């Protein structure tokens, strides 16, 4: 959509924050969907392009001779950001890859049970059910409420589902469809006393909330950098607690499986090279951490606080305009907020990602990019807003007006 088309067919678009100059986002789109795929600042893209140029100038030198020390340096900076030891971290392409690596590494049998919740990201839930099916293990889906009023509403149902057959619980740190911060520290501690490991799907956490993985205590934690850390697409991490590292392997088995080297851990040998890929997203993460942390005074704590406050403002605007109660307490939201909408059209065919036709209407008529997904199942649906430094309060006012108009018309 060009700027000319947008202004001729839609109301005057609201202005973004002045910090949007750091990004390459289309000025003809009101972009309120940072949570899906993120957006990378210009200077980080410039660094990645320079790394790609170096790689293509002499691929063997870059990938064979230079890559390992560059990965180690990047891993060290990332570990400090995540509160982890470098030995416990590997890079992966996305959180889904991290979830799959852990689940496929479990030695399951038909007597075992794996637990997740109805809020879990669909791709990760599919991975859990597939891993269970390979051995005849049982997958258990726990229903958690939304709207939600307290942490106990999220903790008690999970713990009630645990049995002496439970091997692992897969939980989101921040849910994708509903934007809720789950009380993962309390859940990990409670599950640990029951002898149950936790795999945390932290797809949205790095850059939205402070992380101290060493203190958190999860057996496994995976998350993206391309979302709230604003790194290039294809940058994510997998953390494995020291006493679980020997059993976790990548889904693509490659040269590291029989490497005779003793200068690196088997964990790094296998994950750092699963075959020829473009490693520049991983190598760009430290620059992304620096760039975002320097955009406003106060560094990363200020970035996280500002995005949270903006998400709360956006939520308040939408709730007031639509006449609905807050779906969750402020303390259970980060930089996203979701809202249950009136049921959609049951016959509408969702996209691969579960999008509702209202999402297309908002884009085509108002130039608003915001997710409307079928959750927990069609025709039920929720709309989720995101708040990143480039967004402004005026954009949420504009969305609220457009949404009220479309819901009145039956969309």
Short characterization:
With 411 residues, this protein is of the alpha/beta class. 42% of the residues lie in helices and 14% in strands.
Indicate the topology.
Blueprint: H1 3-9, E1 30-31, H2 34-37, H3 42-57, H4 59-82, E2 89-92, H5 95-105, E3 113-117, H6 122-135, E4 138-142, H7 152-161, E5 166-172, H8 184-193, E6 197-202, H9 213-216, E7 220-224, E8 236-240, H10 266-272, H11 280-293, H12 299-322, E9 336-341, H13 357-366, E10 368-369, E11 372-374, E12 381-386, H14 393-408
Parallel strand pairs: 1-10, 3-4, 3-5, 5-6, 6-7
Antiparallel strand pairs: 2-8, 7-8, 9-12, 11-12
Tell me what you see in this structure:
The structure is a single chain. The protein has 411 residues and is α/β, with parallel strands linked by helices. The protein folds into two domains: 3-31 and 297-408, Alpha-Beta Complex (Aspartate Aminotransferase, domain 1), CATH 3.90.1150; 45-290, Type I PLP-dependent aspartate aminotransferase-like (Major domain) (Aspartate Aminotransferase, domain 2, 3-Layer(aba) Sandwich), CATH 3.40.640.10. The protein has helices at residues 3-9, 34-37, 42-57, 59-82, 95-105, 122-135, 152-161, 184-193, 213-216, 266-272, 280-293, 299-322, 357-366, 393-408, and strands spanning 30-31, 89-92, 113-117, 138-142, 166-172, 197-202, 220-224, 236-240, 336-341, 368-369, 372-374, 381-386. A seven-stranded mixed sheet has the order 2-8-7-6-5-3-4, sandwiched between helices. Strands 9-12-11 form a three-stranded antiparallel sheet. Helix 3 (42-57) packs antiparallel against helix 4 and helix 4 (59-82) packs across helix 11. 45% of the residues are buried.
